[in-house]
# Entry
Amino acid sequence: MYTISNMADFQFPGQQWSNQNPVIGTGEGEVPLAKIPTEPTMRTMASDVASIKETGGGEPRPYIPKEIPPSFPDMSQPVTPKKDFVVPPVIPAFVPPQEMGAVSIPTPQGTSGESGKGKSKSGIFIGIAVFVTLVGLAAIVYFFVIPKFTTTPVETPTATPVIPPIEVPEIIETATTTEQEPIIPPVPPTSESSQLPTVDTHSSLFKNSADLTSEVTLTEVTMDSVKKSLEASVVEVPVLREIVFKNSTGKVYALSALLPLFSSSTFTTSTNALFAPDATFFTYADSKGVWPGFVLRLATGADSTVAKTDIKKLEVGNEFASFFLTDPGTGQAWKDGKVGTTTARYAPFSKTGIAFSYVWFENNLIVSTSYAGAQAASKKLGF
# Structure
């Protein structure tokens, strides 16, 4: 085994080797790597200043670079463009620096302050020139270069089709006549009090006043409303009460407005005309009930024979039963009787003590649902 005893035997040409200060080199003439000192030397500003003074230098001062005045092309001479150079279009918004008035070209001479102003103005001018150049190049590209590569189809305006108006035929409505049933005007109801006949002045036919007198206003003239207004309580002592029927305006009803409700076949228009329109209605009350009746007077110049014949129609049929306020039962045959000394006609009913009668006292006619009531009414008439 070979033992290395001396490193100098293996050094390359140009290398210097020693055990105290070994130097390692490549043999190619480079500066050998020196051994790094164990204690580095610290440099400061004071040491550098002292070193400069030792070498004959002066005090250190800040470095101020010399200002080199900018050089501008001669704008007074026309610029001859090259053959391949395309002159950009003139931008109307650009104003030459000479016309702006706010920018002046600095000169090399002058103080440091003036040179600073010139430098600032030159920077503005350069910025404006660069901006104008860029705008010009953009205009060239937009107007000349881009159209060569892109073609946009030209839209040709198309005429809007004119739609002729649609003629709508005029529709003429013709009234079609259809056969309709004739319209019959409604008959005013009997309950309309203002349309029923009345008398201007009422005067009782009783020469001797009745025991009581009552006025009844009928808002509707019907059989039920009249009978309801005549209802009264039974009494132990008989009472003859005169009833005056009035409408809503306070006028007294004529007999032609009320008597047809009881017997329309007897009290017709022609029969009613034979009597004075002002009638006297009454009720006779006793322990058995309340019995209605009325007194009529023959009209001036009327034929009494015709009147008596028409009133005799009460004996036909059973229509007179409607004069009673309660059911009288079944009617019996007509008979002759007397009220006082005057002959009367009466018809008894199946219920005991009930009879319908009528009697003539000269030109006065008494009709009553009670025989006792007819006698009491004749006394009030003065017979």
User: Anything to note?
Assistant: The longest strand covers residues 289-297. Helices lie at 45-54, 97-100, 112-149, 223-230, 255-258, 269-272, 304-311, 371-381. Confidence is low (pLDDT under 50) at residues 99-113, 174-178, 185-191. The chain has eight helices and ten strands.
